[in-house]
Amino acid sequence: MKRNFGKYEAQLMAYVQLRNTRTLQTGDLVAPLRITTKQERELLSRLARADVIARVRRGVYLVPPRLPLGGQWTPSEALAISALIGDQGGLYQICGPNAFNRYGFDEQVPARVYAYNNHLSGERTVGSVALTLIRVQNPRLGDTEELKTPDGLTAVYSSRVRTLMDAVYDWSRFNGLPRAYGWIRKELAAERVSAVDLVRVTLRYGNQSTIRRIGALLDAEGVPPMLCSKLERALRPSSSLIPYVPVYPKRGKLNRRWGLVINDQT
């Protein structure tokens, strides 16, 4: 249904188009629209409730470049995540299920946007875009690819090889195992990723359990011993054994080199 805009709504959209801006903050409209702070607050709240603009956080809103068709608008995923993290001066990379789908590992299209970032954690919503934000330390950000979106924005994704490693590293959050082992085998066989890059990314961004699991996988796939040795040298001495597939019972053949119980049922 087409929405009827009042005087202040029309003036707001004219201001946005004149300034060529995509964001508004509390106070931006008081002088140009000659309204009070209270009127501005009510105007922004009213438009956000009507899905004409999108609230990023208290006092910060995303606005469409022109009057939305039918009177309603929601930002793209790239705009939502960029605005939310950019408002904090932070960095992000879209990861997990979104990256699985982007690289063709999983056909399921996620209902949420998952992103590693260095400022926020938890679930947020910007317009109709649902976000799951995973706060990490700066050293865990990196190995990314940029994607140009149809609306001219740049979305930052974890790279193909980083996504494979994260499927093992963050298996419980992303339901990554044992699926990731099959993905890695296929990607190596198709030469879309290299064992060299997988070892590099695992050493830089993985943890001890990730190194063990990926080391055992590459060892079984017959990659050059020198690469497996790089991973092995990064392991701290430990007598404990962890399951190769954490979601399966811890029963199977022991692999002392990698400190694993090989319980893969495939």
Structure description:
This protein is of the alpha+beta class and 266 residues long. The protein folds into three domains: 7-71, Arc Repressor Mutant, subunit A; 77-158, no CATH class; 162-262, no CATH class. The protein contains eleven helices and twelve strands. It has helices at residues 7-19, 30-33, 37-49, 77-87, 96-102, 160-169, 171-174, 179-189, 195-205, 208-220, 225-233, and strands spanning 23-25, 54-57, 60-62, 92-94, 113-117, 122-126, 129-135, 144-148, 154-158, 242-243, 253-255, 260-262. The strands form four sheets. A four-stranded mixed β-sheet has the order 4-5-7-6. It has a three-stranded antiparallel β-sheet with strand order 1-3-2, sandwiched between helices. Strands 10-12-11 form a three-stranded mixed β-sheet, with helices on one face. A hairpin with a 4-residue loop joins strand 11 and strand 12 (260-262). Helix 6 packs across helix 9, helix 9 runs antiparallel to helix 10 (208-220) and helix 9 runs parallel beside helix 11 (225-233). The longest helix is centred in the first third of the chain and has 13 residues, at 7-19. The radius of gyration is 24 Å and the shape is elongated.
What distinguishing features does this structure have?
three-stranded antiparallel β-sheet; 18% strand; alpha+beta; four-stranded mixed β-sheet; 11 helices; Arc Repressor Mutant, subunit A
The overall strand count is: 12
Shape: elongated
Low-confidence stretches: none
* Average pLDDT for all residues: 93
In this structure, how is the largest beta sheet organized? 4 strands, mixed
Total number of helices: 11
Total domains, how many? 3
Strand content: 15-25%
Estimate percent helicity: 25-40%
The spatial strand order of the largest sheet comes to: 4-5-7-6
Along the chain, the helix and strand elements come as HEHHEEHEHEEEEEHHHHHHEEE
Q: What would you report as the Rg, rounded to the nearest angstrom?
A: 24 Å
The secondary structure category is alpha+beta
The first-to-last residue Cα distance is: 53 Å
